[in-house]
From TrEMBL:
Disordered: region residues: 1-50
Transmembrane segments: 62-80, 92-114, 120-141
Species whose genome carries this gene: Candidatus Borkfalkia avistercoris
Protein name: DUF4870 domain-containing protein
Membrane topology: Multi-pass membrane protein
Composition-biased stretches (Basic and acidic residues): 1-25
Length: 158
C-alpha cells in the first residue's frame, strides 16, 4: 500500500507543478541561467562593465550641459578622453556665452528708451541658450561629437 501511495504523491506533486506556473518555469529558468553563464564567459562578460562606463560617460557629459558651472566634470573624471574634452568644451562655450550675453543685455536693458526691447531680447537669448544645452545633452546621450550651431567651432579646451 505504501508503494501505491508514493506514485500518487508524485502524481499530485506533478499536478501541483503543472498548476503552478512558477514551479514549472524554475527549471527552465535555471537551464537558461546556466546557458547565459557559459555564453557570458566567452567574451561578453566585459561588455556589461564597458556598457556601465559608457552610461556613466553619457550622464557626466549631460550634467556638464545641464549645470554649466560643472563643465569641468567630464575632464575631471575622464582626463584623456576626446569625447569628454569635446563636451566639456561645448559646455564651457555655452556657459561663457550665457554669462557674457546676460551681462551685456543686463547693461543694455538699463537704457531708458531701448531698455524694454533689450529686456525682451534677454528672454529670447536665454531660450536659445536652453536649446543649445538640450542639443548638447542629446549629442552626449547618443555618444556623438556633434558641434553646436553657431558656437560649435569655438575651441577653448584642446
Amino acid at each position: 500500500m505504501e508503494q501505491e501511495k508514493q506514485p500518487k504523491d508524485e502524481e499530485v506533486r506533478g499536478e501541483e507543478g503543472a498548476k503552478d506556473p512558477e514551479a514549472r518555469s524554475l527549471p527552465e529558468q535555471n537551464e537558461n541561467v546556466g546557458a547565459n553563464k557559459e555564453s557570458d564567459e566567452g567574451g561578453s562578460a566585459q561588455q556589461p562593465g564597458n556598457n556601465d562606463d559608457l552610461v556613466k560617460k553619457k550622464v557626466i557629459c549631460a550634467i556638464s550641459y545641464l549645470f554649466g558651472i560643472l563643465f569641468f566634470l567630464p575632464l575631471a573624471v575622464y582626463p584623456n578622453d576626446d569625447f569628454a574634452k569635446f563636451h566639456a568644451n561645448q559646455s564651457l562655450v555655452i556657459l561663457l556665452t550665457a554669462v557674457i550675453g546676460g551681462v551685456v543685455f543686463g547693461i543694455l536693458s538699463i537704457i531708458p528708451v531701448v531698455g524694454i526691447v533689450f529686456t525682451v531680447l534677454v528672454y529670447v537669448f536665454e531660450v536659445l541658450i536652453l536649446v543649445l544645452c538640450i542639443l548638447g545633452i542629446v549629442s552626449a546621450a547618443k555618444l556623438e561629437k556633434k558641434e553646436l550651431p553657431v558656437l560649435g567651432k569655438i575651441k577653448i579646451i584642446k
